[in-house]
Amino acid sequence: MTSGREAYVSVRAATKTYHSQRGDIVAFRNVDLTIRTSEFVSVLGPSGCGKTTLLQCLAGLEHPTAGEILIGDQRVNGPPSNLGVVFQRDVLLEWRTVLQNVLLPVQISGAEIGVSRQKALDLLELLGLKGFEDRHPWELSGGMRQRVSICRALLMNPRLLLMDEPFGALDAMTRDDLNVELQRIWMADEKTVFFVTHSITEALFLADRVVVMSPTPGRIIEVIDVDLPRPRDLDIRETPEFARLVRHVRHLFQEMGVLKSNRSDRLHAARALP
Predict the structure, then answer these.
(1) 125-148 residue pLDDT tens
(2) What is the Cα–Cα distance from 246 to 204, expressed in whole angstroms?
(3) Are residues 73 and 174 in the same domain?
(4) pTM here?
(5) Residue 191 placed within a domain
(6) What is the C-alpha to C-alpha distance for residues 242 and 245, in angstroms, rounded to an integer?
(7) Do residues 40 and 105 share a domain?
(8) Shared-domain flag, residues 52 and 101
(9) Do 137 and 19 reside in the same domain of the chain?
């Protein structure tokens, strides 16, 4: 676990408000969160609770209207240099090959392509894409496309990786496969990861800690330690310990009115039995 490691990301009393002629909209309010070096943190919450907006503030693409965000000892005023981002949509350029898409950050930065090309090839092999280097995105499945986007985010060896529902549009089997792959990659070099998802099981499977947020305006309701051994395989989701964590998170959302409790349904069914 990461309890002995130093703080790397600090969110301090952060609030994000959007102003419009029809009235202000508060995306999240008074968020305090510390993420330690090499920690994997998942963020769960209903749609519209400010999860993605908070991620965009960490990326320097948005700015909180109150409070502050620090990465290392630097206040975030723009996109940090040591950062990788993976979005829900892969955002690949259809006219570029897989390898060319992965190398795009190097070209944008003006760095030397030669050394990075071999690293890109190694990453593609690591994520099971060897032999697809010269294919175009339209020739790949959804899961393969997202693997390419992960390779692109990892190419510059970022210290912080932000992931905004990267597997949300994929089928269940592909999603499970990429959960296992992501855990394997993270354990290899233990980057600091901020992972936004709507899936309770995905959040718990991947994370050291799970941040649960309320409906809009988003607030942190609870931060849950996931004290399960690593590496985790998919069978861990069938264990009593994992089931207990899932029940706890579901109960939090039921208390917030995000999920409906089926307790009354079970009671009615029991009464109907002979």
Answers:
(1) 988 899 999 999 999 999 999 999
(2) 8
(3) yes
(4) 0.89
(5) yes
(6) 5
(7) no
(8) no
(9) no
What 3 state SS string does the chain have?
CCCCCCEEEEEEEEEEEECCCCCCEEEEEEEEEEEECCCEEEEECCCCCCHHHHHHHHCCCCCCCEEEEEECCEECCCCCCCEEEECCCCCCCCCCCHHHHHCHHHHHHCCCHHHHHHHHHHHHHHCCCCCCCCCCHHHCCHHHHHHHHHHHHHCCCCCEEEEECCCCCCCHHHHHHHHHHHHHHHHHHCCEEEEEECCHHHHHHHCCEEEEECCCCECEEEEEECCCCCCCCHHHHHCHHHHHHHHHHHHHHHHCCCCCCCHHHHHHHHHHCC
Query: Does the residue 16 lie in any domain?
Result: yes
Q: What is the pLDDT of residues 8-51, one digit of tens each?
A: 999 999 999 999 888 899 999 999 999 999 999 999 999 999 99
Do 39 and 118 share a domain, yes or no? no
Q: Is residue 174 located within the same domain as residue 211?
A: yes
Domain coverage including residue 202:
7-82+159-272
